[in-house]
Every structure is written in structure tokens, then in C-alpha cells.
Specification:
Elements (H helix, E strand, L loop, with lengths): L1 E19 L2 E14 L5 E6 L10 H11 L2 E3 H5 L6 H12 L11 E8 L4 H11 L4 E5 L5 H14 L5 E5 L6 H11 L4 E5 L10 H17 L4 E3 L6 H9 L5 E4 L7 H10 L3 E4 L6 H13 L10 E4 L17 E3 H5 L3 H7 L2
Length: about 350
Amino acid sequence: MLYQFQYRRYRLSLRAPVRTAHGLWVDRDGVIVRLEDETGTAGYGEAAVIPWFGTESADDVVAACRELGDKVDNERLAALPKRLACLRNAIAGACNGTAISDLPSNKTLGVAALLPAGRAAIAAIDPKAGAGFRVFKWKVGVADAADELALLDDVCAALPGGGKLRLDANGAWDRRTAERWFERCAERPVEFVEQPCFAAAGETATRRGKSDDLLRGLAESYPTPVALDESIAGDTDIERWIAAEWRGIFVVKPALLGDAAGGLKKLARAKADVVFSSALETAVGARMALRLAFSWVTPKGTPRALGFGVWPLFAEALFNGPAAAAFLRAKDVERLNPEAVWNALS
């Protein structure tokens, strides 16, 4: 199959900065790709890169797209380097983007509400609870650990009846800090702690090994589950943690995986506990990621709430995924219009 290939880079301002342990996000950088086949059918995909997460950069994606040229075939697309995982994901999205969905239109999945960091989280809970949310994600590891820990009881007290709290440290804690948090979480409505510690790919093998050992130790020593996020930023990470018989939670950002469908098949065979999460992508990447989330069959129990309660994210509403609501329907995903995003970037 021969395709006409185009790409457009974007840098979009966020409605409000997103503060994490990695710093402050004020805008989002990425690339949208378009493939048109010989019948004139077009599909779109998104390279929603997060370099500090371990992905390639937007500059890397643009350079690779420029090298591909304006006409490509399946062989050239398949030969893209594995290190360009987000671009490979975008290509897969463009190839499959116009496929007719077989998702049941009446299927719904719960969504977790994203809270701001620090004390602002407390005031944000009540209106979100009034909108029906019962699962809340609080970014920690942003300020002094003692100050954040002192807020935990106030945040928990603000939760609605039956509400659950997810803590996301983005790998900011050392062993002592992590143990203090897990001791405190044991008797509180904390669903899980996401990525308490992390050693980036650029660090030494010894440092990465110690970080992995700490994650396993925390998972085995405390009742509150541990969730991997940055630790599974790529396809090989999924294979590595499955091989290590990880029995905690896998937070999967489909937009960051070069072979998202293949990775999910491996997780399904391992009967893994999976949470689908946003990479703060536009409507283009959101459509592909959420299609995968709605296709996932939970090995047992009720599916965990989606980590997609992030929109409206962008200052320009056209680029947003589905409006943040306590429940998301498959038909809301199918309403997303990648072509409109592409045209807006022209």
C-alpha cells in the first residue's frame, strides 16, 4: 500500500499549568501525522511525546517525518526505529484511524478526576464530587514532602462518601519518604500510589536496579498497591515487568507505546491489573488511546477508572478530548474529529 504522508507540529497552550514532580507544564508540544491511501481515505495519528518520560522529542519526530518524504509504503513505515515509539504509535493511529469501531455504543467507563497539586486540591474536590466523580488523582512529590503529607488527612476528609484517592508522585520520593507515605496511606481511602520512585533511562544500571528493587519492596511490604507509570514508558518495559511477575498495577499511557495493541495483548495474557491514562494528548491521540481502553477486557472485577479526567486541557477547545465527566461513553470517543484538529493546524 502506498500512502501520501504529511505531518504538522503543534505547540498548544494549556488552559492552566499542570504541576508535577518533573516541573511545570505550560504548553504541549507534539506532532500530528496524516496518511492518505490509494482510495483517498485519510487517517490521523499523534506523536504525543514526553521526553522527560523517556520518549523521543518533537524535534526527533519532525526529523524522521522529513526523512520519510511525502510518499511512503508499509515497508518504510515498519522500518521506523523502535526508539521513535511515539511516532510509530502515531503511524499506527493514522493507519487505523478511519476504521469502523466495533465498540458497543452503550458501554461506559468511570473516570478519575485530576486534582491540582498542593492545598488547592481540597477546594477542587467538592465541585468534582457534585459532578459525580468518586475517584480523584492528586499530584504529590511537588512540594516539601512533610507539607504534602500533612495535607493528606484534609484531602481525604474532603472526599465524598465512598470516594477513593490516587496519589501520583511521578518518581519523586526516596526510600524514607516513600515509606512514610505508605505507612500513612495504610488506613486511608487511597486506591493506589503511582510511581513512588523512579530512575530514568539515562541513569546507571545500578541506580535503575535499586529503584526497581524499592518498588518491589514497597509493593510487598504495605497494603496500599503500587502502580507503575514512568517505569513502563515503552514496549520493552511492559515485557520486563511481566517477566518480573509484577503483581501491582500497570498504568498504561497508550500514546507512548510504539506497539500499544501488542503491549496490551501481553498484559491481557498476564492477567494484569491495568489503568488507562492520558498523556495529555489532543483529540487525535485521545481517540486512539480511548478506543484501546474501551476494547480492554478486565481479567476480573470492575475496570478501574480511566485516568482521562484531564480535559478541557487546552486553551483552544477544538483540540480537547472528551469533556471531563465521571463516566465516559464509547460513543463520546467516536465523536472526536481528528480531521478538525488537522485542519486547525494548517
